[in-house]
Amino acid sequence: MTDIVTGAGGRALSRKGVETRRRLLEAAEQVFADLGYPDASIVKITEAAGVGQGTFYLYFASKQEIFAELVRDLNRRIRQTMKEASSRGTNRLESELLGFGAYFRFTEEHPGLYGIIRQAAFVSPEMFRFHYETMSRGYIEGLREAKARGETGDIDPEITAWALMAAGEMIGLRYILWGDGRMPERVVAEVARIVRGVLEAET
Amino acid sequence: MTDIVTGAGGRALSRKGVETRRRLLEAAEQVFADLGYPDASIVKITEAAGVGQGTFYLYFASKQEIFAELVRDLNRRIRQTMKEASSRGTNRLESELLGFGAYFRFTEEHPGLYGIIRQAAFVSPEMFRFHYETMSRGYIEGLREAKARGETGDIDPEITAWALMAAGEMIGLRYILWGDGRMPERVVAEVARIVRGVLEAET
DNA sequence: AAGAGACCTGAATCAGGTCTCATGTTTCTC
DNA sequence: GAGAAACATGAGACCTGATTCAGGTCTCTT
C-alpha cells in the first residue's frame, strides 16, 4: 500500500508537490533544531527551503502541524533503526543491548533531532506521548516474549520497559550530547550491567 | 547568610517588593504550566498576579528570566524534598526508595511544575542542564558512599545515578501524569525490584 | 498548442506581543 | 508631616510573525 502524500486540506500532490513538501520538512527540521520552536518562524523555514512564504500553506496548515509531522517522521526513523538492530540479537539481553547501541548511534548522528522530540512536550503533548508510547511498545513486546521463554526473572514487562527506555535516553543525553558527541566505551559496558541487573533481579 | 532578594538590575527590595515578586513568580508558575512557554505572555502573567504590566519589569528583565528563576526555584524544592526523605533510610537501597517515593509524591502534588522542567530544554538549556546535574549530584554522592561501604556491587556510581534518575522521572510521567494522578502500589513495588537489580548486579 | 489544474509568489493585513515612559501612589525616614 | 525613595500603573510606540490573497507560472493531458 503506497502512501499518498497530501498537502494542507488533504489535496493530493504531484511529483513536484511531494518534492516541495519534503524540502519544507527538511528545512523545518533544521530550523526547529537550531532555533527551538519559539524562535522558529515560517519565514525562516520557507527561506531555508528556498520557497515563498505563501507556499508553506499549500502543504501545512500551521507551524504546529509541520512540527507534529516532523516528530512523527523522526519517531518512525528511530524505531526502524532500533528494530533492525535488535532483531539481530539471539536472546533478549543481546537484543536489548543492540537496540541501545542503535539508539546511541542515532543520537550521535542526529543530535538536533533528539532535541526536537524534547520540545514536543509543550508544543504538541499528543505527539510527545505518541513518541514515548510507540517507543515503549517495542520494548514491552520483546520483554513479554523473553519472559515467556524464561529468559528473564519475574519482571513486569511494561514498567521495566519504561525504565529501560528512560535510562537509555538520559544516558544518551548525558554522555553524547553533553559529552563529546560520542558514546564512551565504559558507558556502554556499564549500561550492559544495568540492563542485565534490571532484567534478572527477582522480586 | 540571608538571601537578599533583588529585582531587575539588582536593586534591593523592601518587604512589599519581595511580596510582589513572589506573586509574579507564582503567577508565572501557573501560566507556564497551563499554557506552555510559547503561549505564555507577560500580560497574562501580570494579570494572574494582579499587577500592572509595567510592574513586571521592576522585577524581571524578560520572560526568559522569570522562567529561569522558576526552574531554579522548583529544582530547589524537589531536591530538598528528596533529600529529607532519603536521609531517613538506614541503607542505600532504603534511602533510594524513600527518595523515589518523595519524588513521586512531589509529582502528584505538582503536575504542572513537573511539566515546566521539561520545557526548559529549549527555553533555557543552561537551566535544563543545571536541573539534571544538581538532581544527579545527590544520587552520585549517595551511591559512592554506599559502594565504599560495600553496600552495592561494583557499580559506576555516576552512570548508575543518571540511569536511576531517568527511570524515576519517566515512571512518574507514565504512571502519574498519564495515569490517574496517583502512583499505583504495584509500580512502586516493581521500581523497588528495578533499583535493587541496578544496585546489585555485578559486571 | 491550448486548457486545466497544480503550483508558486511576496506584499499586505492583522493579531498579538514586548518593553518604555510619564505620571501617580505608597512607604519609609527624620 | 515633608521629602525621598520605592513601588505601581497602563497607554502606546514599536516589533515580530502568522496568514491571506490576487495575480502570476509551470506542467501535464489531449
What does this protein structure show overall?
Two copies of one chain form a homodimer. By secondary structure, the first copy, chain A, is mainly α. Chain A has two domains: 1-61, Homeodomain-like (Arc Repressor Mutant, subunit A, Orthogonal Bundle), CATH 1.10.10.60; 63-199, Tetracycline Repressor, domain 2 (Orthogonal Bundle), CATH 1.10.357. Chain A is built from nine helices and no strands. Chain A has helices spanning 15-35, 42-49, 53-59, 63-86, 92-109, 111-123, 125-148, 157-180, 185-200. In chain A, helix 4 packs across helix 6 and helix 5 runs parallel beside helix 8 (157-180). In chain A, 41% of the residues are buried. The A-B interface holds A 36-38, 115, 118-119, 121-123, 129, 132, 155-156, 159-160, 162-167, 169-171, 173-175, 178, 186-187, 189-191, 193-194, 196-203 and B 36-38, 115, 118-119, 121-123, 129, 132, 155-156, 159-160, 162-167, 169-171, 173-175, 178, 186-187, 189-191, 193-194, 196-203. The first copy, chain A, binds a DNA duplex (30 and 30 nucleotides) through helix 1 and helix 3.
